[in-house]
Amino acid sequence: PAPPALLPYVPRVPPAALPGKLTATTFALERPCCVFDRHANASDTVWLAVAFANASAAFRNPPSRADVPPYEQLPTAHSYMTLETAAATYACSASSPAVLRVGGDTLCGGQGGRDPCNGPLPSPGPYRVKFLVMGCHGPKAETRWSDPILLRRAGSPSTIDPAPVRHGSDVVVIASILASLGAVLAVAVLCATGAEAWGSLCHQDSGTGAFARRSYRTHHIPPALPQPLPPGCRCSPPGLGCFAPRPPGPCPAK
Fold first, then answer.
1. Secondary-structure percent of the chain, ordered helix, strand, coil, rounded to 5
2. Which segments of the protein form a coiled coil according to its record (predicted)?
3. Contact 229, 248 (CB under 8 A)
């Protein structure tokens, strides 16, 4: 049979930030929309070939569906095929999710037979992937291999230090100096506030004392004594002064 057509499309992990884009057992791929329309019929299917990066060059396209390498042989064959999908799903007019998840089926690892399984990836890799169009008579078209995809590595519990992070002596000295400066500044602010309040109270007390010293007490002033009338003044009611000369002699009693 004729070799499959090589398409210029290169699968890749989405560049945008996505939750779970790369995990310890899975990774996301951009969905290849409008890539296979000219090379696939309605009865054709599209597969995803997954291989360890150092084994992708040795991968051989299966001549039929019965020869598709299963997921269970990945540890020994270093490659497998999964995500069998109708070619129409990737057509330009199809509405479908923007990403595919490789390794997302945790229940298919125990399946027997040749059913395509999308089970969790057993190691961080790295891996390479490509899409392959399969018809009734074998492969019809294929994309290029992706760049190596490295999964996240899970940290070993033995490498985790349970003790708190120890800071250097310089950090401790700087922290102590900053704490001392903060305490001094707080004391200075309190002293300034207290001095201002004390000065205000003293000012109020001094004003009250000055008013007390300026108050008048009239009980110590002796009563005015009657003054003798000058000679020649006529008798008049007290406090009205002298009216006119009077004849000599005492004023007549009332």
1. 30, 15, 55
2. none
3. no
The yes-or-no verdict on residue 69 having pLDDT over 80 is: yes
Contacts of the segment 163-171: beta carbons below 8 A, 24+ positions apart: none
- Residue 204 neighbours by CB distance under 10 Å: 9
* Alpha carbon separation from 29 to 47, 104, 126, 238 (Å, rounded): 13, 12, 14, 126
**Angstrom distance (rounded) from CA 157 to CA 242:** 124
pLDDT, tens only, 24-52 = 999 999 999 999 999 999 899 999 999 99
Radius of gyration, CA atoms only, the chain:
54
What average pLDDT does the segment 168-173 reach? 61
Give the range among 67-81, 90-104, 118-132, 231-245 with minimum mean pLDDT.
Answer: 231-245
Interstrand relation of 138-142 and 5-6 (parallel, antiparallel or unpaired): parallel
Residue 244, pLDDT > 60, answer no
State how far the alpha carbon of 124 is from the alpha carbons of 16, 101, 116, 131, in Å: 21, 15, 21, 21
Q: Which token pair is 223?
A: 């009563």
Do 149 and 12 form a contact (C-beta atoms < 8 A)?
no
> What does 202-246 look like in DSSP terms, one character per residue?
HHHHHHHHHHHHH----TTSPPPPPPPPPTTPPP--TTS---S--
